[in-house]
Design a protein that fits this description.
By secondary structure, the protein is mainly alpha-helical. It has one domain (2-91): MazG-like (Helix Hairpins). The protein contains 4 helices and no strands. It has helices at 2-17, 23-45, 51-76, 80-91. Helix 1 (2-17) crosses helix 3. The longest helix has 26 residues, at 51-76. It is flat, with a radius of gyration of 17 Å.
């Protein structure tokens, strides 16, 4: 699914932004993580809107992070799906309860 997203994203990026530097989607990731943090914080604090409004904003930010990461990988020539699969293969071997010092 991530590979398909990355393939579909490529012509959309070219049409809308030409050939942007990879720094632009990277900064987009950072911005969206900030928006996710804001939504979750306000949700936890119970202020500035209803729980559901913050929930929707948080989900939107997660989706935007994935799209910006797909764009970053496209511009860098990386395969996002392979990166996630390889990283998950390493992470799932960690056992922090059995090995609290190094997983």
């Amino acid at each position: 699914m991530l590979r398909r997203l990355q393939r579909q994203l490529a012509p959309w990026v070219a049409h809308n932004f030409g050939d942007p530097p990879w720094t632009q989607p990277f900064m987009g990731v950072v911005e969206e993580v900030g928006e996710l943090s804001h939504a979750l914080l306000k949700q936890e604090q119970g202020i500035r809107g209803a729980w559901d409004d913050h929930e929707d904003a948080a989900k939107d930010a997660v989706g935007d992070v994935v799209i910006f990461l797909a764009c970053l990988c496209h511009l860098r020539g990386w395969d996002l799906e392979s990166i996630v699969e390889n990283t998950w293969a390493k992470v799932q071997e960690r056992d922090w309860k059995a090995r609290p010092n190094n997983g």
